Amino acid sequence: MDPKARLLIIDDDTTLVNALEMYLSREGFDVHLAANGAEGLKAFYALRPDLVVLDVMMPQMDGWETCRRIRELSTTPIIMLTAKGQETDRVMGLKLGADDYVPKPFSLKELVARIEAILRRTRRSESVNKSGVLYVTDDLVVDSERWEVRRDGEPVDLTSTELRLLFYLAENAGHVLSHQQLLEQVWGPEYVDNVDYTKLYIWRLRQKLEKDPSSPRYILTERGIGYRMARPN
Fold first, then answer.
1. Are 135 and 229 in contact (CB under 8 A)?
2. CA distance 4 to 27
3. DSSP letters for 131-191
4. In tens digits, what is the pLDDT along the chain, a chain of 233 residues?
5. Would you say residue 1 lies in a domain?
6. Do 158 and 135 fall within a single domain?
7. Domain residues for 201?
């Protein structure tokens, strides 16, 4: 874990926020706080944090809208804090671009582990040897050196997690990859049981890459196993 990693916590629960600030600071993070979504957006643009911890239920601007606005301009990792047992909250957060979720109540140790896992894979992605163009068809280009994807010549707006997932699929085009393989390579070994992550992120990639997401041309489902990137023509 980078001891200088800057975190922005956006939550209106004063008791929880104070506990998080104390614990995370002690763990070596540079912690900044915001009490609601509107204040959080201002702090985000001013601070440019390495990671955002974002609560769902807040006054003035809830976590959904805050997440959406952050994603319009940045791929900064976001961890959503959701109500325990609310699967709809988890699904909504991931669809909007959150990288992970932690249901309340949670242990501070678990949150730190999640933060470190995300920062670790983000750093690894940034430092990995660039291999250039991974995938080319008549209308899709996946370029890991430029860290970009283009469809019909136009850049596609993808989050860092979406890019890592697509790069891994493209590197293994033509080969079936299980949910567990994707989770371990893209998210880390701590996530191998979170099959919903792959399903949701594949859905998001299809929405952005496929002309007809209901009949995908690039990212194909291998039922009961996982997914396969079609070989380029």
1. yes
2. 10
3. --EEEE-SSEEEETTTTEEEETTEE----HHHHHHHHHHHHTTTSEEEHHHHIIIII-GGG
4. 445 799 999 999 999 999 999 999 999 999 999 999 999 999 999 999 999 999 998 888 899 999 999 988 888 999 999 876 566 777 787 788 888 888 888 999 999 999 998 888 777 655 554 557 889 998 999 998 888 899 999 999 888 889 989 999 999 999 999 999 999 989 888 888 888 889 999 999 999 999 999 999 999 999 989 999 999 86
5. no
6. yes
7. 129-229
Query: What pTM does this model have?
Result: 0.69
Going by C-alpha positions, the residue among 30, 197, 50 that lies closest to residue 123 is 50
Q: Report the CATH number that the domain containing residue 215 is assigned in CATH.
A: 1.10.10.10
